[in-house]
Amino acid sequence: MKNLLKGYQRFRNEVFPQMKDHFRQLAEVQSPEVLFITCADSRIVPSLILQAEPGDLFVSRSVGNIVPPFGETPGGVTSTLEYAVKVLKVRHVIICGHSDCGAIKAVVGKKDLSGLPNTGAWLKYVDAAWQYCDPGSTPKDPKELHTTLIYANVIAQLHHLKTHPEVADGLANGTLQIHGWYYDIPTGSIETYNEQTKRFHPLEDLIS
């Protein structure tokens, strides 16, 4: 807590004064163009990775960057998605998985989650990811399998995303785009999923 309090003090004394006009503009309204859905992992800091300003990203975080399919028990992710698309009118939804994901590690290792019943139930939404692993090239090495399933889980959650009516309508009307990303912690690099090639490519490929 001491480091957090010191950080707050620096923010109030050094950062906020330089951005006070920006915060005044945000005081009563927000209009982010992007909903960023990612893992609760403390190592993933969307605004830092993307160098985004306050007001740029509407963020939803949960274990395993999971989006339950439409019709399942409503929760924080689904309500955030609904609000972002219907009310804030975001134009992009990004699902971002990451390296060394503990949620996927638990699934691959078939960890006993009997003591974590809510987590166990939540991770059932990762099961769909197995179908996006190429059976002919699925690695046997646990670490490689772990990474393979992280990528596959991003694809699975994109498909879950499409089951939500507000997303389906936005895609059909051309008012919404969805993206699947993989963030590599040790290198700081991002890869993005291409539905045409069915592969992940460096995000730099999209930067002109």
Tell me what you see in this structure.
- By secondary structure, the chain is α/β, with parallel strands linked by helices.
- The chain folds into two domains: 30 residues, no CATH class; 175 residues, Carbonic anhydrase (Beta-carbonic Anhydrase, Chain A).
- Helix content is 40%, strand content 18%.
- It has seven helices and six strands; from the N terminus they run αβαβαβααααβββ.
- β1, α2 and β2 form a beta-alpha-beta unit.
- The chain is globular and about 55 Å long.
- The mean pLDDT is 94.
Which features characterize this protein?
Beta-carbonic Anhydrase, Chain A; alpha/beta; six-stranded mixed sheet; 208 residues
What's the structural blueprint in terms of helices and strands?
Elements: H1 2-26, E1 34-39, H2 46-49, E2 57-62, H3 76-86, E3 92-98, H4 102-108, H5 117-122, H6 142-162, H7 165-173, E4 177-184, E5 189-194, E6 199-202
Parallel strand pairs: 1-2, 1-3, 3-4
Antiparallel strand pairs: 4-5, 5-6
What's the gyration radius in Å? Answer: 18 Å
- Would you identify the CATH architecture of the largest domain? 3-Layer(aba) Sandwich
Secondary-structure element order, N to C: HEHEHEHHHHEEE
- The neighbouring-strand order within the major sheet is 2-1-3-4-5-6
Number of helices: 7
Beta percentage is 15-25%
Query: What's the number of domains?
Result: 2
What fold name stands as the CATH topology of the largest domain? Beta-carbonic Anhydrase, Chain A
Number of E-type strands: 6
| Structural class computed from helices and strand pairing | alpha/beta
